[in-house]
Design goal:
Blueprint lengths: L2 E3 L6 E3 L1 E4 L17 H13 L4 E3 L8 H12 L8 E6 L14 H15 L4 E6 L8 H14 L2 E7 L3 H13 L5 E7 L11 H8 L2 E5 L33 H18 L3 H10 L4 E6 L4 H8 L8 H11 L10 H6 L2
Parallel strand pairs: 3-4, 3-10, 4-5, 5-6, 6-7, 7-8, 8-9, 9-10
Antiparallel strand pairs: 1-2
Helix pairs in contact: 1-2, 1-9, 2-3, 4-5, 7-8, 7-10
Length: 337
């Protein structure tokens, strides 16, 4: 396992991060997975034995059950808490009340205490806002997170799913008010979905903010188990993409390029799709989740994949986004400099 520094810090995290969205199976997240404690313990042990020191969860995953199972797995396996980097999130609804969601001081403080209790830990390594909150001034959110860092309950803060302009607004406020700033962004990014490269990736590289990737296989599309009609050889249909915008034609064109590479390297399509992300300069860690130990074992091998320059070129060409304004204008302007 390789390790990278997360953002502009000295914190080293494994380039593969264990995702916990499949833990619990309660409420909305039951469609992602319904793993119980024994299975969670197995996945955690396999990950840590492979060198993974980074675990990502959220308070909304299975209505808090994911955090509980994660914390209990650490105890069951006798893992050393200080050797792990535990990340969780805040913003989503955790109850029916008017203040049970968002990024207000009230909600954040309530939820950090609840997450600490569920995880059975004294501190959270990386506390992330799950998106921006249009009702709460960013100053209130940043000030509250800064207080949590100063209190010792949180070590670092991060963000997730924000537009680039909102992230930059938060970073600037933290800088000029001398508050704790976000060290990471967690976003969707894959060979089949490179939208992040338009605005967010340049911002992250410029501001030295780390990037964590969720759904690196585009909700399973890049695993290769679906055909162009959305049918799975394992039965069922590709229904998860009804609310997950993906250019399917481009995705299957990508798979056509990946297949001969996978055969040559004796690797799975998923391993290659994950490995491509590890080659991207902005990416710090790729979150891998699993419902089965075999799936996790396969994903963990992506760290060993090596691409040639020609292979990377082929993947870039088949997956690249069409240029949009002002992107198509920039090369002409730079040539004149």
């Amino acid at each position: 396992m390789k390790y990278k520094v997360l953002g502009n810090t000295g914190l080293k995290v494994s380039e593969l991060c264990l995702g916990t969205m499949t833990f619990g199976g309660k409420g909305f997240f039951s469609v992602m997975g319904n793993l119980g404690q024994d299975s969670v313990d197995q996945l955690m042990k396999k990950s840590v034995d492979a060198g993974v020191n980074f675990i990502d969860t959220a308070n909304v995953y299975s209505e808090g059950v994911s955090e509980e199972l994660t914390g209990k797995a650490i105890r069951n396996l006798g893992l050393k808490r200080d050797e792990l980097i535990i990340a969780t999130k805040v913003r989503g609804a955790m109850g029916p009340g008017p203040n049970d969601s968002g990024l207000s001081r009230k909600h954040i403080i309530q939820q950090v205490e609840a997450s600490l209790k569920r995880l059975n830990t004294d501190y959270i390594d990386l506390y992330q806002i799950h998106n921006y909150d249009p009702l709460t001034p960013i100053s209130e959110t940043i000030d509250t997170l800064d207080d949590l860092v100063r209190s010792g309950k949180v070590r670092y803060t991060g963000a997730s799913n924000m537009p680039a302009w909102q992230l930059m607004k938060a970073v600037d406020y933290a800088k000029y008010e001398r508050k704790t700033s976000f060290i990471s962004m967690q976003s969707y990014y894959s060979l089949a979905g490179r939208d992040l490269e338009r605005e967010m990736v340049p911002l992250l590289l410029d501001q030295k903010i780390g990037l964590m990737i969720w759904s690196p296989l585009a909700a399973g599309l890049l695993s290769g188990k679906y055909n162009r009609n959305g049918e799975s050889r394992e039965g069922g249909r590709l229904t998860s993409f009804e609310s997950f915008p993906v250019d399917r034609q481009r995705a299957f064109n990508i798979l056509d390029i990946l297949r001969p590479m996978a055969e040559e390297k004796n690797a799975s399509l998923a391993q290659l799709a994950l490995a491509w992300l590890l080659y991207q300069p902005a990416v710090t860690s790729v979150i891998v989740g699993a419902n089965k130990i075999e799936q996790l074992e396969d994903n963990l091998k992506s760290s060993d994949i090596v691409f040639s320059e020609e292979e990377l070129k082929k993947l870039d060409e088949v997956s690249q986004l069409p240029l949009e304004y002002p992107g198509w204008l920039e090369p002409m302007q730079q040539d004149r400099r």
